[in-house]
Amino acid sequence: MNVLFIGGTGLIGTACGKRLLEDPTVKLTLLHRGNSAPAYTGASELLADANDKDSLKKAVADKRYDVVVNWINFVPEQILRDAEIFGGNVGQYIFISSASAYQKPVPHYRITESTPLINPYWEYSANKAKCEQTLAETGMPFTIVRPSHTYGEGRIPLAIGARDGWTPLRRMLDGKPVIVHGDGTSLWTVTHNSDFARAFAGLAGQPKALGQSYHITSDEAINWNNIIKTVAFALGVEPEIIHLPSALIEARYPSLKGHLIGDKAESVIFDNSKIKDIVPGFSAKVSFAEGVRRELAYWDGREKPVDEAYNKMMDDMLDLAKRVYSA
Predict the structure, then answer these.
(1) First CA to last CA across the chain, in angstroms?
(2) Which of 100, 181, 205, 290 could form a Cys-Cys staple with 125, CB 3.0–4.6 A?
């Protein structure tokens, strides 16, 4: 199976690439700009700018792929570009969408692939939904994959995350309070990238997946208070949790509206029946507690960067909380 990843050098794509290469019959090519080197060996590389149509077209000229996976399409125009380049020359085009595109507020506590794609709070999610609609109109043999909150070594899953995974851990170790949106009781689903990759590998090259959409998540639902407590327990500290209303956080930091009001402030539980039907034996194996232990092992002996912008934002929210609760 000849597979092309466009992008795919990040957290999820790296796990999926490694998983695919466990199959000796898979030939994987990574097309990227060269700014981020692949974190694994075994794949061929094509250097090109996927957002430059001429650059992309030149790089893949006269090549046919059984599977093309685009990890970095965010607007419909990019889908149309790929349809022009790959439309008649690919067995399966996989678009990486987002489970955040599902309707908010959620119409039912359990989300299925038929849940409407209506999220008016987050432009990113709305654009992913538009991409899906555009893709269905192109005539390409497609499969849509919707990741939810997926994490892995180097990236701790928090509602208000840092650009790196270490800074929130450092703050807990230093005894600083942790901001949690709402009352912390909304349920959330986090999925380890290795689990996502196992299911993804089962979809790649699968004829029955053509014309279908799938989300891939864990079945474990944890509230935000317990997410923080699980991380703190692994660190050996007792967390001090400060709750702030999501609307108040959004008013202070409008850029977080999509992440909270349009996503993590909701209780979100996924029905994974569809992916389990097409990938026999699949279920997420890495519990959140185990994932956190892997996260700490990842940082052992590594350079630990500090995200000062994140620290500044968290300290500002703590100051806001003091003013709110002392009023």
Answers:
(1) 64
(2) 100
d(CA 176, CA 158): 15
- pLDDT tens per residue, range 258-276: 999 999 999 999 999 999 9
What pTM, to 2 d.p., does this model score?
0.96
What does the DSSP assignment read for 114-140? TS----TT-HHHHHHHHHHHHHHHH--
Structure token digits, residue 77:
């125009």
Across the chain, how many H-helices and E-strands are there?
12, 15
d(CA 327, CA 317) in angstroms, rounded, equals: 15
Q: CB of 136 within 8 A of CB of 145?
A: no
Specify burial of residue 207 (Cβ count, 10 A radius: 0-12, 13-18, 19+).
Answer: exposed
Select from 15, 10, 11, 71 the least CA-distant residue to 201: 15
